[in-house]
Inverse folding.
């Protein structure tokens, strides 16, 4: 009440009679004038506002942007990053999909609903659906990965008990291609194999799911290699096949094929045999391609020269073993001949001249004693002899008695031809950085190995790998399979490791056929030079143009010296 | 008299400003709704682009392309001798400087190579 007292006092003052001659009255007039002035100022201000309002309402284009909240485009919701190949081609992607669940307790007529759902979901039988609808639980999944059309049809039923959940489906557009490298996903959305498993953390990292994981694979080369391998596998009736294409200067794997393969889109039901990555997970005694390493070590250490020759007239007897040649020459052979014609007898003698320790250390430097570091989890450890005696040295010199993965061999062959740099194999495209390497061979010995490999194709056992114009070099490998403590001459592992172009090596191409039976009626012709070399040749012929390797005539003087040491083969 | 006109004008003016303010408001509202709808459309399109990219990857998969090629085209794999690695190797080629307009450049022998180099 006390607060209002001054106001009441003021009212009393207003009701008092006014007199104009009073000085107080003239003061009032002044005040009134001032008040009018203030009112006019306010009126002008309001007028400006009103005019502006009308102008805004009437005029068309409002150019000026305001401080209104910006419209935000909802970000793409992706749970898992894409995987792309080196050219950005999508190898694996997540697409929006839906799962259908139901609350069975809310359903009035399960029979009718089951019948309608069975029409929409051809993968589910009506009986199974009815069973789920009658289960009496609170929540049952009816189907996963519904197509947009199925989603629409389910919504059209209008049954509130049916609930569609937004899910994501992992799609591999290229199906079986590179399936072993990519791996596949489990139902719960976790990677179960290959890059999907080993790169799970990177792929699901929420801050970079919109950024695809770029692999070193080239899907075109992958297709060429896979197709050629599959064709050879059919032709020569092999049990399985494996192949690799690798860049010799970066260690990047462009293609990695293992047959039989599987489709990662529909993985359930593939037997374990198909999921096995024969390139990294399986160890083989790879046979004569190992001669490359024996020769490289001997050339590097100065043990042999191209002019040296060894006696290969009769089988070599060591303790209870007898070393034969698959392609007997029955003659004194020069070192290049031993390599080109793949003489076990000659190579074993070179290995003995080199010495057990130097031979073993060289192979150890090439990484043949331990599992590889690779982006895939599926890597096998090589099998090496526990007791590395002279006999082991001799047999390992031509690739028996040591079992390694094909990728081990490819990586080591790359080091043999690229100037002696051993570079780790990788499935990740790192297109700028120069990879780390260890020096394992002198550039001079590497050049000599290149000449030997070229000769093995030009004049030796690898003739069927000669892709005209692409200067292919390589080495055949034919190994008998070890069964129950001995070797079974009827079961072979036939392989060929090729490098092109030999004057400036860029790619290693490897092909392996597991237990080829040979063509119908030609069961003797199933060695690596016969079965696997054409795979390498065809792969090079088809892939080289894609990889930018130009076909051209080579300079014959590069091989003059070594070629003069190889007599033309007796037929 | 003046006073009445003033009142009348003020009322008119008030109605006009209310009307224009309302028009403005609805205009802004519809624009905001449109922007919102566009944002959703963009999001849906982004998702659709992902689907299309996946479909394109599937449709352009080398295996599929080869199947179509075998079925519809009479193309054979190129042999190394068919692959020319230099544009200068193309026979009967008009040197590019003659296309540049103006007078043809004097013959310098470029674009011509001895036939012996093209044997494959």
């Amino acid at each position: 009440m006390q607060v209002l007292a001054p106001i009441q006092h003021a009212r009393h003052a207003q009701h008092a009679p006014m007199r104009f001659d009073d000085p107080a009255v003239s003061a009032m007039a002044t005040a009134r004038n001032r008040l009018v002035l203030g009112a006019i100022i306010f009126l002008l201000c309001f007028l400006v506002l009103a005019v502006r309002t009308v102008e805004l309402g009437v005029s068309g284009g409002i150019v000026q942007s305001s401080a209104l909240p910006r419209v935000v485009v909802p970000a793409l919701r992706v749970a898992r990053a894409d995987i792309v190949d080196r050219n950005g081609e999508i190898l694996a992607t997540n697409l929006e999909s839906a799962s259908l669940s139901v609350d069975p307790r809310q359903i009035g007529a399960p029979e009718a609903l089951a019948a309608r759902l069975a029409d929409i979901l051809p993968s589910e039988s009506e009986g199974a659906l009815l069973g789920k609808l009658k289960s009496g639980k609170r929540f049952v999944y009816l189907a996963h990965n519904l197509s947009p059309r199925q989603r629409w049809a389910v919504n059209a039923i209008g049954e509130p008990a049916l609930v569609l959940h937004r899910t994501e489906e992992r799609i591999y557009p290229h199906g079986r291609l590179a399936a072993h490298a990519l791996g596949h996903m489990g139902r719960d959305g976790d990677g179960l194999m290959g890059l999907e498993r080993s790169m799970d953390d990177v792929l699901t990292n929420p801050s970079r799911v919109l950024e695809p994981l770029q692999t070193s694979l080239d899907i075109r080369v992958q297709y060429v290699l896979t197709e050629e391998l599959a064709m050879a596998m059919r032709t020569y009736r092999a049990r399985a096949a494996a192949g690799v294409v690798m860049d010799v200067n970066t260690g990047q794997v462009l293609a990695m094929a293992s047959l039989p393969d599987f489709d990662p889109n529909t993985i359930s039901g593939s037997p374990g045999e198909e999921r096995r990555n024969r390139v990294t997970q399986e160890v083989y005694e790879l046979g004569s391609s190992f001669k490359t390493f024996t020769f490289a070590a001997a050339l590097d250490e100065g043990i042999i020269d191209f002019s040296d020759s060894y006696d290969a007239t009769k089988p070599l007897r060591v303790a209870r073993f007898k070393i034969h040649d698959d392609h007997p020459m029955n003659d004194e052979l020069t070192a290049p001949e031993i390599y080109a014609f793949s003489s076990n007898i000659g190579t074993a003698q070179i290995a003995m001249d080199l010495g057990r320790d130097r031979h073993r250390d060289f192979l150890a430097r090439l990484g043949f004693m331990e599992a590889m570091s690779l982006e895939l989890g599926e890597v096998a450890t090589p099998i090496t002899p526990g007791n590395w005696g002279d006999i082991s040295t001799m047999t390992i010199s031509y690739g028996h008695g040591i079992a390694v993965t094909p990728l081990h061999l490819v990586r080591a062959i790359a080091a043999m031809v690229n100037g002696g740099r051993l570079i780790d194999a990788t499935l990740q495209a790192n297109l700028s950085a120069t990879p780390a390497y260890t020096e394992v061979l002198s550039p001079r010995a590497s050049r000599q190995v290149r000449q030997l490999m070229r000769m093995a194709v030009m004049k030796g056992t690898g003739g069927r790998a000669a892709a005209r114009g692409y200067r292919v070099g390589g080495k055949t490998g034919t190994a008998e399979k070890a069964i129950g403590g001995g070797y079974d001459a009827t079961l072979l592992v036939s392989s060929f490791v090729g490098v092109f172009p030999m004057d400036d090596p860029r790619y290693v191409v490897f092909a392996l056929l597991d237990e080829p039976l040979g063509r119908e009626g030609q069961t003797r012709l199933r060695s690596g030079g016969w079965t696997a070399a054409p795979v390498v040749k065809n792969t090079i012929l088809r892939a080289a143009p894609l990889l930018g390797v130009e076909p051209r005539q080579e300079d014959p003087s590069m091989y003059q010296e070594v070629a003069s040491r190889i007599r033309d083969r007796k037929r | 008299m003046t006073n009445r006109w003033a009142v009348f004008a003020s009322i008119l003016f008030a109605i006009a400003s209310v009307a224009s303010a309302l028009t403005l408001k609805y205009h802004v509202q519809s624009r905001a709704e449109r922007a919102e709808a566009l944002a959703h459309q963009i999001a849906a399109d982004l998702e659709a682009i992902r689907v299309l990219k996946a479909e394109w990857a599937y449709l352009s998969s080398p295996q599929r392309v080869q199947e179509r090629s075998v079925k519809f085209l009479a193309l054979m794999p190129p042999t190394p001798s068919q692959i020319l690695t230099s544009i200068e190797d193309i026979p009967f080629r008009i040197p590019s400087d003659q296309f540049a307009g103006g007078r043809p450049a004097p013959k310098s022998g470029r674009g011509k190579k001895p036939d012996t180099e093209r044997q494959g």
Notes: Chain A has a mean pLDDT of 86. The two ends of chain A are 131 Å apart (CA to CA).
